[in-house]
Amino acid sequence: MHDSLTLVVILLTTAVCAVVVFRRLHLPPILAYLGAGVLAGPGGFGWVGDTAGMQHLAEFGIVFLLFSLGLEFSIPRLLALRRVVFGAGPLQVLLTALPIIGLLWWLAPTPAVALIGGAAFALSSTAMVIRDLITRGAVNTGYGRAATGVLLFQDLAAVIMLVLLPVLADPGAGNPLATAAATLGKAVVLFAGIYVIGKWVLPRALEETGRARSDEVFVMTALLLALLAAWVTHALGLSMALGAFLAGMMLGESHFRHQIEADIRPFRDLLLGLFFMGVGMLVSPALFLDYWPWILVGASLLLVLKMAVVTGVLRLLGERRETALRSGILLAQGGEFGFVLVALAVTHGLVSNEQAGVLVSITVLTMAVTPALLEHSGGLTRRLLRQWEQEPDTPAVDEATTGHVLLCGYGRVGQNLMRYLHRFHHQAVAIDTDLVRIQEASQAGEHILYGDATRKEILERAGIHRASLLVVTFDDPRQAERILHTAHQLCPDLRVLVRTRDDAHLDELLAAGAAEVVPEVLEASLMLVAHALMMLETPFGKVLAMLRQSRRERYKLLRGYYHGESLPTADRAGNPYRLLHAVTVHGQAAAIGKRLGDLELAGGKVEVQSLRREDRTLPHPDGDTVLLDGDILILYGALEAVEAAEEQLLGG
Description:
four-stranded antiparallel beta sheet; Na+/H+ antiporter like fold; Alpha-Beta Plaits
């Protein structure tokens, strides 16, 4: 008992530490569990010598994984994406699996290893890809729908593979094709039975459970349903995972779906963590050292093969080049169901631990690079398309076009600006790098060019020498600075209007030559202030004068704010945020009796927005102001500079 408790504590400690480290590295928790398993297994520190017992326990993780998948596996969603699901899906699985099976059959000692490897490598990571699409809000984009459709078929194929796995494990059961057909027949009959039960019996049973108004009873009912369905299919000689999947799919159509999913998630995540740790125990560091050239080559070939197959299949179905290629990049990795297949193959004696270790190592390596592929899939897609294709044949601006507005970026802001320019009879030309957007806008009659607006030749092709105004419509301060530099090299007198999100880069952009900078957040605040004042019956003339003065002073009154506890130290590009911070000068503070102009706070990097003295507030005090005991200074600047200025004021 004591040894078992010690083992559990060691495993949980290893898993928790691994997940925390991998989260900091922006890597998925699956890899953390696999790494923890490698450390704890026979090939690592040897804390777990016999992995068979843990594998049996971890099978329940597969049951709950398939049950959760069934809850998400909506039949209406399947039908909505049927062209991709039943068109691209089967082709992708076959065209990926067959060459891998052929290669492994030539290399592997048994056909079973080739079949298991081909089936496992044909599947991608649903968890990683779908989570990334949801995070980016890209589920309903062209490439998001295409990737989701292929993943739906892969999940369905994984269930069929799990059903047929016992047929491979029992070669003495007669004709394999007949056995497989009988197994699938039993699965269809089981599907019909569970459909009837799930449609009319289970919802009523759950309603009765819900009337008990007991969370414990509802949780136990959800667990019972998943395990009971798994027990029924196991008793019929089928995979436990199949029963759990079918039960989840039937309940996924009911209004209990979200509550059940929330209730079983802790059990599923814990058992799945144990399962992936068990898979990691199949990998030995010594094995990786022995086979690392094969593992690296295998992972590279798998990434290239799956990207090419997915891209080609989607192009065959008529998807756009960018959609097909980006979907191929998203689905290039191996997936968690590959681990499930390999682990069950080891349990059934189809694959040795050494062979499983190589297969798992290849999959892990592809999944390790997946976060980077997901993050840069858009840029990588555009880069590859520029190399493989000619740029869109968009004519350059002709000599007759003069006085037009040049828009750098044709996203939502650029398109809105274009509409209003047309309404007021101004000509406009846009530059963008999104091929799909260019094709659609060109068909609608818009004048839009393909290219990078930081390049001289692209700006010249857009007629910058004859333009009356250049507008940077996207929120990327670094790109905007490069455009400003290039534009002023070509046309020093051209006015440039730049859009930014906030005031973090306002001074730098103005210094780079922007005629005006429009910070979205500050403009939204200004509009809110104006509406509030007008609703308070402030004369319109005074409101208009306030707006003009605020913009003339470069939003001086609006710049900076008190961040509170959730203080972000830097933006997405790593540039420091600027904030307001109040410092009280009292007691033995070093700044008392000194002029503000003599202090040069933080080397001039901090601005004094206002000075509070007794009941008076002095906005933007000048350098001759002498600080007195009790003065409160409102400082504005980057966090580190403000902290240095506070130390200078108080400590000298």
